[in-house]
Each structure stands twice: as structure tokens, then as C-alpha cells.
Amino acid sequence: MAKGVTKRQAQFVAFIISFIKKNDYSPTLEEIANQMGITPPAVLKAIRSLEKKGVITYTPSIARSIKVVDNANLHVKLFAIPLFNEEPSVNDILSNNYEEEYFVTSLDVDGEDYLAFKVTNLTMNTIGIYKGDIALVKKTDKCESNDIVLAVPTADDPSVRSSLRRYYYNNETSCRLDSESENQGSITTSNYVIIGVLKSIKRKIS
Asked: Which segments of the chain belong to CATH 2.10.109.10?
């Protein structure tokens, strides 16, 4: 069972599971379509394919009848990671002050040491990262020049807002944090904490 599940199909399953955990009922075809950025007929085709693989069941005559029945045999793992409503501060992360859990698969991440947040600070819009996108960040304090990182200010530098920035090593005590935006420039600072490195961007197409 569940042989040949693709990365895209695993994303469908991850969304269905997260929706049910959050709402205690299954999503409609329209809700899945809105999340995945496709049409309801395309969702139905995907659902039928997953049915044939024994991953889900679906009864069209019954409202909200989509159920995941073969999670254990998907051959991919599902991870619940914290989803913050905006770029988090250090205190947000340490106090687990997040909005909800966000489900991703082992095809998206390599473990549970990740966090997600909704982009609100437009520091990367010229390279296609926009407000409302969900950023997946691998938590680490090790990064290399040109990595896109989640950088947050310390209490000594209130002028720097938590944001995605392109990291460049400056010296042992400071770095340069570049934006990819016409409205925000570079910052050279030592009063920062690198929370992690950006791994991917998820976009909800409405």
C-alpha cells in the first residue's frame, strides 16, 4: 500500500492531516484547491489517485468525507513544526509563542529541527519572497556567506527587526545582513542572532 506516493501527493496528505488536526473535520475539495493552488477538478484527480494507492478514502456523497487511512505506510514522515504568525523574536522561539503547528513531510525537511513563519517584513521581495508566504527555516547558528537567514535583533539593537536577510561574514564580531528589496538596505551589526537558514518557501495561492 501507498507505493509510489510522489512529493506533491505527500503535500496533499500533509495538508489534509494538518487541517483535520486543527478543525476536527476534513477539508472540502475547494479548501484543498485553495491551499494547493489548483482547481477542484485537479484536486479530485489527485484524491482519486491517492485512493487507488490506499492512502485515503473519499465518499463524494458525504460532506467532508476525505480521510487519511494509511499514514504509517506513506514511506515519508510527517513532521509538525511551529508556525509563527510573523518573523519571530528570540523570546517567541524560547517561549514557544507560535500560532499553530504546520505539517511538512520528510520530502521537504530532513528532520524536526525547523520552524515556519508567515513573511511580513518585505526584505526579499525582489527575489520572489512576498508577504504571506510561509518560510521554512532550519534552526542552526552555522551559516555561510550568501545564505538567506532568519536574523533577529538583540535587546541592544532595537532598530533591526526580525527578518530574512542574506548573510555575509564580516569579522569575528559582526556580519553584513543584506536585503533583496528596493526599500531596505544592508545592515552591518554585531547585535544579532542567527536563528537558522531558509530552506524553502511555501505559498498559498488563492
From this structure: 78-202
- Model confidence, pTM: 0.73
Secondary structure class of 82 (helix, strand, coil) = strand
pLDDT band at 97 (very low <50, low <70, confident <90, very high): confident
Q: Does residue 203 sit in helix, strand or coil?
A: coil
In whole angstroms, give the CA distance from residue 10 to residue 70.
12
Task: Report phi then psi at 41, rounded to 5.
Answer: -60, -35
Q: What's the CATH number for 78-202?
A: 2.10.109.10
The DSSP bridge pattern shows strands 100-105 and 148-153 to be unpaired
Helix, strand, coil share (%) of the chain residues, nearest 5: 25, 30, 45
Report pLDDT digits (tens) over 182-205: 888 888 888 888 999 999 998 765
Report the topology of domain 7-73.
Answer: Arc Repressor Mutant, subunit A (1.10.10)
pLDDT tens digits along 141-180: 889 999 999 998 876 555 667 999 999 998 888 899 999 9
Closest CA to 27 of 43, 4, 42: 43
| Grid cell listed for 78 | 510527517
